[in-house]
Amino acid sequence: MHRRIAGLGAIIMLLAVALGAFGAHVLEPIIQDSIETYKTGVQYHMIHGIGMILVALAASTWGDSGKLRWSAWLFLIGIVLFSGSLYLLSVTGWRWLGPITPLGGVSFIAGWLMLAGSAWGRTGKNK
Fold it and tell me: Does the reported pTM lie above 0.85?
């Protein structure tokens, strides 16, 4: 499990860097009014891509668990919903995407909660 999550986390980070560079070099002159929204999407995308890699490292140290798997999935769902909605909102101006963004935020919070629960629920040296 941990290698797949680490690989997916690395791809997520690759996309975050690419989208950040695209925003800075191509989109910024076009979407000046909403570039901060776009940057927020990139920031949370990156943080939670690193979070996925952290989950993979935890799984390799503590062993596979349902909480860790949920944590990785919730981070991915959060990236799609939170960052994805901010990217689209900033580029298209579609205000109806606004209510989707908090669902991504809730996914992020739940993912961190699952990671914490996995850490606190372990006992012994390698658990």
Answer: yes
CA 57 to mean position of chain CA atoms: 16
**Residue 123 phi, psi dihedral angles, 5° rounding:** -135, 155
The one-letter amino acid code at 24 reads A
40 burial class (0-12, 13-18, 19+ CB within 10 angstroms)?
Answer: middle
Provide the token pair at 40. 């927020």
Residue 35: other Cβ atoms inside 10 A: 16
CA 73 to each of CA 23, 30, 69: distance values in angstroms, whole numbers, following the listed order: 26, 33, 6
Provide CB contacts within 8 A for 9, sequence distance 6+.
Answer: 49, 50, 51, 52, 53, 55, 56, 72
- How many whole angstroms separate alpha carbon 62 and alpha carbon 37? 37
Average pLDDT of the residues in 111-122: 92
